[in-house]
Protein backbone atom coordinates (compact mmCIF):
# COMPACT_ATOMS: atom_id res chain seq x y z
CA UNK A 1 0.00 0.00 0.00
CA UNK A 2 1.22 3.49 -0.81
CA UNK A 3 0.00 6.59 0.97
CA UNK A 4 1.37 10.10 0.40
CA UNK A 5 1.09 13.00 2.80
CA UNK A 6 1.84 16.60 1.88
CA UNK A 7 2.61 18.41 5.12
CA UNK A 8 4.71 21.34 6.27
CA UNK A 9 7.57 20.50 8.63
CA UNK A 10 6.07 22.91 11.16
CA UNK A 11 2.87 20.81 11.17
CA UNK A 12 4.62 17.58 12.18
CA UNK A 13 3.59 16.55 15.66
CA UNK A 14 3.47 13.62 18.03
CA UNK A 15 -0.23 13.30 17.17
CA UNK A 16 0.64 12.84 13.49
CA UNK A 17 3.22 10.16 14.32
CA UNK A 18 0.74 8.40 16.59
CA UNK A 19 -1.87 8.49 13.82
CA UNK A 20 0.63 6.82 11.47
CA UNK A 21 1.36 4.17 14.09
CA UNK A 22 -2.35 3.47 14.48
CA UNK A 23 -2.99 3.40 10.74
CA UNK A 24 -0.10 1.13 9.83
CA UNK A 25 0.26 -0.81 13.10
CA UNK A 26 3.16 -3.31 12.83
CA UNK A 27 3.83 -2.85 9.11
CA UNK A 28 7.28 -1.86 7.91
CA UNK A 29 7.32 1.73 6.68
CA UNK A 30 9.56 3.30 4.08
CA UNK A 31 9.62 7.06 4.69
CA UNK A 32 10.94 9.47 2.06
CA UNK A 33 11.29 13.18 2.72
CA UNK A 34 11.18 15.40 -0.34
CA UNK A 35 11.40 19.16 0.12
CA UNK A 36 10.16 21.48 -2.58
CA UNK A 37 12.83 23.48 -4.39
CA UNK A 38 12.91 27.19 -3.80
CA UNK A 39 12.99 29.48 -6.83
CA UNK A 40 16.78 29.77 -6.88
CA UNK A 41 17.30 26.00 -6.69
CA UNK A 42 14.76 25.52 -9.49
CA UNK A 43 16.42 28.07 -11.75
CA UNK A 44 19.89 26.66 -11.10
CA UNK A 45 18.78 23.04 -11.65
CA UNK A 46 19.13 23.34 -15.44
CA UNK A 47 22.70 23.64 -16.77
CA UNK A 48 21.58 26.15 -19.43
CA UNK A 49 19.71 28.30 -16.89
CA UNK A 50 22.61 28.14 -14.43
CA UNK A 51 25.10 29.36 -17.04
CA UNK A 52 22.79 32.16 -18.17
CA UNK A 53 22.01 33.32 -14.62
CA UNK A 54 25.65 33.28 -13.55
CA UNK A 55 26.58 35.22 -16.70
CA UNK A 56 23.87 37.81 -15.92
CA UNK A 57 25.08 38.14 -12.32
CA UNK A 58 28.62 38.72 -13.59
CA UNK A 59 27.30 41.33 -16.06
CA UNK A 60 25.60 43.23 -13.23
CA UNK A 61 28.72 43.05 -11.04
CA UNK A 62 30.75 44.45 -13.94
CA UNK A 63 28.13 47.07 -14.85
CA UNK A 64 27.49 45.54 -18.28
CA UNK A 65 24.20 45.08 -20.16
CA UNK A 66 22.17 46.97 -17.55
CA UNK A 67 18.83 48.37 -18.65
CA UNK A 68 17.59 51.42 -16.75
CA UNK A 69 13.88 52.25 -16.72
CA UNK A 70 12.38 55.48 -15.51
CA UNK A 71 9.33 54.59 -13.39
CA UNK A 72 7.52 57.69 -14.65
CA UNK A 73 7.66 56.19 -18.16
CA UNK A 74 5.70 53.13 -17.07
Brief digest:
The protein is 46% helix and 0% strand. The protein has helices at 14-24, 39-45, 47-62.
Question: What features would you describe in this structure?
Answer:
With 74 residues, the chain is mainly alpha-helical. It has one domain (9-73). Helices cover 46% and strands 0% of the residues. The longest helix has 16 residues, at 47-62. The mean pLDDT is 90.
Total strand count, please? 0
Taken in chain order, the helices and strands follow as HHH
Overall average pLDDT = 90
Q: Strand fraction band? A: under 5%
Between the first and last Cα atoms, what is the distance in angstroms? 56 Å
Supply the number of structural domains.
1
Helix segment count? 3
Question: SS-based structural class?
Answer: mainly alpha
Give the biggest beta sheet.
none
Q: What would the principal axes of the Cα set say about the shape?
A: elongated
Q: Work out the helicity level.
A: 40-55%
* Rg on CA atoms, Å: 23 Å
Q: Enumerate the spans where pLDDT stays under 50 for 5 or more consecutive residues.
A: none
List the helices and strands and how they pair.
Layout: H1 14-24, H2 39-45, H3 47-62
Keywords for this entry:
mainly alpha, 3 helices, elongated, about 70 residues
Amino acid sequence: MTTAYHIKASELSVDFINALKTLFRNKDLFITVEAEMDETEYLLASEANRKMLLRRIKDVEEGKNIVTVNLKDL
